[in-house]
Structure formats: structure tokens, C-alpha cells
Fold this sequence. Notes:
By secondary structure, this protein is α/β, with parallel strands linked by helices. The chain has helices at 76-80, 83-99, 115-124, 165-179, 206-218, 230-239, 252-260, 272-284, 290-312, 335-343, 348-355, 357-362, 414-419; strands at residues 3-11, 20-27, 30-35, 47-50, 55-58, 60-65, 102-107, 132-134, 136-141, 160-162, 183-187, 222-227, 243-246, 266-268, 380-383, 400-405, 408-412.
Amino acid sequence: MSRTIIRDCRVWDAGGAAAYPADVLIEGVRIRAVARARGQLDGTGAEVIEARGMTLMPGLVEGHAHLSFGKAAATTDLGDLPPEEHTLLTARNAKLLLDHGFTSAYSAASAKLRLDIVIRNAIAAGQIPGPRLKACGPEITVTGGLGDERRAHMYRESFAVIADGPTEIVKWARLCCREGADAIKLNISGDDLYKAAKGEMTVMSEGEIRAGVEVARDFHRKVNAHCRAAESVKRAVRCGVDVIYHCEYADDKALDLLEREKHRVFVGPAIGLPVAVRESLSALNAEADPQVRALVDRGFEAATRTYEQMRKRGIRVVIGGDYGFDVTPQGANARDIEHFVKLLGYSPAEALVSATRVGAELMGIGDELGLVREGYLADLLLVDGDPLADVSILQRRERLVAILQNGNFHKLDRDALARRPVRRAAGE
Ligand SMILES: [Zn+2]
């Protein structure tokens, strides 16, 4: 069994305590010991990494991953991509996320039925690098909903599959389960990108949602949902959906429902995309369509108001911002942590907990992932600097000096370690 000692680091363990100096022993895939009394660990047969006061923290968890999305400028781009190229793109994105410190990812949806599933399996088998992955099926949407790209005279593939009525929903949900998805995705509200079903419309019926949830329960899978409108959030909670994304127009009643179910439900604002769209509209300046700008601003302002409430009510919120569009390149996912701090009222520690411990709970293994603690899986980052003082350093790859997954080094920048002046973690 491999043994590694990370000596003289500052541990931020995501358990609520301030960072503290320690030595950490990793054996095989797990953290064996976290010793606050330094120099006490038995180093027999161990590789010793001198961390010189760098921060050791849990690996990041992307809570709204779309590994099969890449540089999409229009939503139709994803449907146009053939399956072979699409599989390669998804594999490249998986490596990119791990390179940026995301040791786990919970998929919000896959652009084709089996993309997440084959990539998850290849990562788990050690065939390709990538985050520990929970796979989702494609977005299941109703005619006219988010992801229906067809016209009356023209069929068109997209990232979604179209199902109307409980029978068709059941069929698609069972197909996702048969092929091995960990979760199914239901698009309950519309989206302002689409002509018919707007973001504040709730277009999937309660009967349709219940049909999908029932299948997922039978197969012991999770249900994710796209919900912008207040009514869509209420329907999702009432029908037993597990992970509810966006929720920006949630009203008090919807927030009350979420709070009541907060030990079961997760939410994610997916704030990265609206922020990036606003930035790109500002860059366009006067050329930006004022109607589009007003719509984007309205959604963004609703999100900032709503997530202030989510935080106060103790609802579990994960990071993840729809990375994979042209304005949100894969790999930039840690921007979401900074957005939580600057835009949603989170403290740096709260945002980092969302990005680690809460994400691990979403992965379904919160009892062995997401903390720097004895017995936990060794998915860890060694960071040059203090992310609690400045969360934006996590966006800089060169600051991630080591990335460990299952106790193995995906990255170990020995030059960066050697360059660092000798300084004790305690700062004396
Ligand atoms: Zn999404």
C-alpha cells in the first residue's frame, strides 16, 4: 500500500474549524492520520512532501457538471455533434476539470444518453483521467420546452430528448436507468432562451414529474430538475425531486418548501453562466439587444436575492455554473466560488464548504468524502496560498501545487515546492 506524508501544511478541513498546522498521512486511497503535533508520524516507507506551509484542503466538487458541453455558442451545437467526436470532447473535458482541482463532479445532464456513463466508467476503471463522476442522462423535456429545437417542418437533434405525458417520460427515464445513469434530468420550467416556454413558465405537469420520480425511485437513482419559475420549484419539491437547479424566481412559499425539505434536497444557482452572459453583453456595449440585456439582468438580480435567502435558511447549495458554453469555458468552474462570495453573500469559508463538503454530500458519499479527516478518501488539493483570504487563487492552475485523487497524485509540481521558501505552517 502506498504511503505519503504531507508535512508541515495548513489544513483547512471543511469541518467548520479554522485552518491549522498539521502533518497528514495518506495510506492507499484514504487519509490515515491528521497529526497536529508535527514530526510525529511514522514515515517508514512513505514519500514525504514538504509543504512548507501551503494549504491542504478537500478536492473541489462541481455540482452542476455538463462534461459533454464544449464551447457551445448555440444550444443546437450540442445536437449537431456526432457521437464519436462528442465522446472525445467529453473525455477531454473530464481531464480539464481534474487539472483544475475538481476531483469530483455531479452531472446536471449529459448531451447524449450514454456520454456521461461511458466517461464515468472509464474514469472509475483508471483508463482516463477525470473527476469521480455521477452520471446523468440527457435532459428530458416536453414539446416546446428547454431543449426542443424542432420546428413544425423540421426535426432537429439537441442536448435534450422530448417526452410528452407520463408514459413517454417513464420510457425515457427507464432507458436512462437501463443504460446506467446515476440520475435523470427533468426540465420542469422553460428558459428565456426559448421562444415558447420562458423561464417563468412551468411547462412539465405534476403527473409527468411524478412519473419520472417514480421510475428513479424504483431503480434507486436520483432526479435532477431545471426549475426557474416559482411554481416549477414547488412542483419539484412536492414530487420528490432531489436536486433542483436555478430556482431564481422561487417565492416565499417555494423557499418554505425547500427549507422544510433541506435535509433531502440540494439546490444550485448555476450562477456562472448568467454572470458570464452579463459580462459578454457589457463587452458588446451598445450593440447588445436591450431586451436581452433586461431579461438577463432580471434573472441575475432574482438569483442574488433568492440565494441570500437560501444561505440564511440553511438550504444546501452547491457550486457549478453551467460551464461548457463559449462564455463559460470548461476548467473555469472555480469562478463560481468567487461568485458565491462577491454576489451571493457567502463568506469565503461558506463558499468553500459548498464547493467541497456539500458537494460530497450531493455525490452521496458525504460520510467519506469532502473533509480532511482520518478515514476519508484522499481527494485533496495542496494550494500555494490561503484560499480563505482570497478564493480566486483556486482559479489559477499554477497555485494548485498538488492534486490528489484516491491517494494518487494527478499532479505534483515539485519545482513549485522546491521554490517555496522554508516557512513553518504555524507562521513562526
Ligand atoms: Zn445546466
